[in-house]
TrEMBL record:
This is DUF4180 domain-containing protein. Pfam families: DUF4180. InterPro entries: DUF4180 (IPR025438). It comes from Pedobacter yulinensis. Residues 11-113 form the DUF4180 domain.
Length: 116
């Protein structure tokens, strides 16, 4: 895993580069969040491929558990990917509602994440 630091008006942003799944459950998310928080980051940009595939199956509760960690600690998260392949109404609504806020966003590029 490589962390590329970026700056914004809100503070430091950590762009995560990895070919591996890094978050498979809420504990993994909390560990990543804590590691970044103690390095003075306020936001993380991570790729869709770094989340366990089950994250996008809302029935299992994984997404809710993981995103609750970011919400509890008021740590921003941007997930980068092509979400058009998720055709279910629930996941599409979930992404749409998340993107209406500022804490968790599902975006198509890192550049969009740095602007969000």
């Amino acid at each position: 895993m490589k962390i590329i630091p970026h700056s914004s008006a809100e503070g430091r942003i950590a762009e995560i580069i990895s070919d591996e799944v890094l978050i498979t459950n809420a504990d993994d998310a909390l560990q990543l969040l804590a590691d970044l928080y103690y390095q003075d980051f306020v936001k993380v940009v991570i790729r869709e491929q770094n989340l366990a595939p089950g994250f996008f199956d809302l029935k299992n509760g994984m997404a809710g558990d993981i995103l609750q960690k970011f919400s509890n600690y008021r740590f921003s998260l941007a997930v980068i990917g092509d979400f058009s392949r998720y055709q279910g109404k629930s996941i599409r609504d979930f992404i749409y509602e998340s993107n209406k806020g500022r804490l968790v966003n599902f975006l198509d590029s890192p550049a969009a994440a740095f602007r969000a």
